[in-house]
Amino acid sequence: MKTLKTLAIGALIISASATAQGRFDKVEIKTTKLSEQIYMLQGAGGNIGVSVGEDGVFVIDDQFAPLSEKILTAIKALSDKPLRFLVNTHFHGDHTGGNENMAEAGATIIAHDNVKKRLESKQRDGNYNPKEALPVITFNDKLSITINNESVAVFHAANAHTDGDALLYFTQSNVLHTGDTYFNSRYPYIDLNSGGSVQGYIEAVRKGLMVIDENTKIIPGHGQVSNLKEYKKFLNMLETIRDKTQKAIDNGKTEDEVKADSSITETYDTLGYGSGFINSEKMRETFYKSLTATKS
Ligand SMILES: [Zn+2]
Q: What average pLDDT does this structure show over 85-89?
């Protein structure tokens, strides 16, 4: 009886993972060189940052579990040194899905305290994450990692995309990884149900801007490699839409009215900001909800 049950569960797991694998079969990992030792990897999900050098490999985010093998192969092509550390910029599955596999490949996982809390309590297919998928080292404000002859400043932005966001700045390579506190040329997803907020999101971009200059290469959470000019434009977009939404709220507009009022976002709709995951209506809805939420 026990054997039969185990077999049935085994078959179930295999078929479930085969379906998950199917979605990623055609995904190819694209590698972009940003500096002597920093690379960006793109597949499906959040952009991955990689630092390679004499100390080993340091990775930021890991997309989805079915892509781990391809990601590790792409990393191997850059360095044969051991995988040392992995930082999760936040808890979302398209940035942490490969955690267990990366830990198995040797990485020590680092993240903000709230990333660990959320990964611990989150269930996937009815199961809790195994402990291997959880961060081993957590921090609440900032952390510095010295690897491959440079210091990497890891800093938290409170209540931005989620309640556990980290941005990372490579001080010698002059590369910033923003996690999902920046979607290049797109409206951002602000996860209000996981502690994100419009005001915190804007503050996160301001924090990022404080450490960079006109030569910095920026790895956004999603989208192509970016720079200071585009990042400032993104901040401008956020502040403009926040101000217009706030004005509508002050004028007594309801959520439905704000959702329907395309004049709030039209300048940026025209530029294609609403063509990604978050369309212009969703953007206005999120801004309304966040700006009217009672502050705790
Ligand atoms: Zn995210």
A: 98
